[in-house]
Amino acid sequence: MVAFGLVATVAAATTGALTFREARTGVLQQSQDSVIRQLRVQATQHAPQLGFPPDESALRNYADEIADTEASGGWRVLVTYGDLSATSATGDTFTELTPAVRQAVASSSATVFQRVRADGRTSLVVGMSVAFSDESRTRSGVRVYLVVPQTTEQAYVDALVTAVERAMIPALLLAVVLALLAARGVLRPVRALRQATRRIAEGRLDTRLAVNGSDELADLSHTFNETAAALEASVAELREMEARARRFAADVSHELRTPLAAMSAVTDVLDEDAARLDPDTATAVRLISEETVKLARLVDDLMEISRFDAGAAVLHLDEIDLAESIRRTLASRGWTDTVETDLPPPDAVRARVDPRRLDVVVANLVGNALRHGARPVRVRLAAARAPAPLAVIQVWDSGPGIPDDVLPHVFERFYKSDSARTRSEGSGLGLSITAENVRMHGGTVRAANHPAGGAVFTVELPLRRDELPEEPRS
Question: Quick one: which of 103, 111, 112, 50 has its CA closest to 81?
């Protein structure tokens, strides 16, 4: 619309300027031709009365007769002959008469004219040499200069400017209206395309556009519909494949639990009798027992991931002492003497969380630090007040840290860094399960490298204001 308006403005202004110039030229040209023609006729008609050589009185009479030709009395005439001069108005200095006009009249037999603006007024200055009336047309030496005010012509020009200005305003308004109509016709399908694109981005892949006409916008709408249909088909196929994969993992995990339970029971019995077996058999029994434990842990992790994917995971919230919960997690796994802790006093930081899932979060992070980092491993709990009430749990190891190219992927499922994480007892799901459990609580978890060395995992869980510890009073 702006472009259309600018084009219309330029077009209207250009047309108005050209029209004004042509009309102004026509008005002034007509006035100029009329004055010159009339001056020639009068100068020739009254020339025989001059007598030759003329005296100053004859020149004055000649000037008066030419000036009286104009009924309105607007003509001012100067007649010169050699050093003699006379005017139609006594004392008139003819300031409008320039030396250039005098020189041009003296050097040419043609009529010379010039428009001069002085004192805010425009005047037409005409000069000509009077010739003898014989056939030779020899110049007599008498020169006539006429000054005619252009008041009427200027009024015509001013009226023309006003008319052009008045005509441009409706033209611009009409251009704006046409621009609005044109813009509406163009922008309506563009707005529809923008809204459809937003609906696609929101996941409504069945969005389609109405195709009207055969112009470029119709082609664009048709292409959008084809792209949306292809995207919908691809996403549907991917979702079906993902659903089948989830069902497969859940079914396999479920089917494995029963034989694994039996295998675990058998390996427990074999572990008790391993001391009475020969060394090679005892080694094999312990290996089977360890691998069975790993397999059972993997199956449990797969079952947990399947519940997250299916949306079946639920929180069983309870208000607990976070520091005490962390202590129980470390004690139940025999890490009390292995892990350094920086925990607040009892009941200093309380929160409504799912105790089982918080236990999984802390256990996974500490276990990951012990397996892939180096001791000492530190666990810290603190409460933050700004920008929002948070319980902050940090697990920091003293290992080499996490490579920069690995950091963005540490919470992905089954991800293992080739350089830092070779085959180990981890399933590759622990950190993914940790992230899901934290997300269910409305918190965040992130991994980074500590400036002093080692990897640090930070969990932030939201707290209510009344769950924050009281600030110490001075």
Answer: 50
Looking at residue 307, its pLDDT comes to: 77
pLDDT digits (tens, 9 = 90+) for 251-264: 766 677 678 777 77
Q: How far is CA 301 from the centre of its chain?
A: 45
CB 438 within 8 A of CB 445: yes
CB–CB of 420/426 below 8 Å?
no
Using only C-alpha atoms, what is the Rg of the chain? 52
Q: In 3D, which of 370, 385, 391 has the Cα closest to residue 461?
A: 391
Spatial separation of the C-alpha atoms in residues 5 and 178, rounded to whole Å: 9
Indicate the pLDDT class of residue 320, thresholds 50, 70 and 90: very high
Task: Select the CATH number that applies to the domain covering 2-159 from these four: 3.30.70.1150, 3.40.50.300, 3.30.450.20, 3.40.50.12780.
Answer: 3.30.450.20
Residues 106-165: tens digit of each pLDDT: 887 778 877 777 766 777 788 888 876 555 456 677 888 888 777 666 666 667 777 776
CATH superfamily membership of 318-467? Histidine kinase-like ATPase, C-terminal domain (3.30.565.10)
241-310 is classed CATH 1.10.287.130: yes
Q: What is the pLDDT of residues 213-222, one digit of tens each?
A: 777 778 888 8
Residue 391 confidence (pLDDT) above 90: yes
CA end-to-end span of the chain, whole Å?
67
Instruction: Find residue 142's DSSP bridge partners.
Output: 81, 130
For residue 399, give both structure tokens: 């290992």
List Cα–Cα distances, 20 to 23, 68, 149, in angstroms: 5, 33, 21
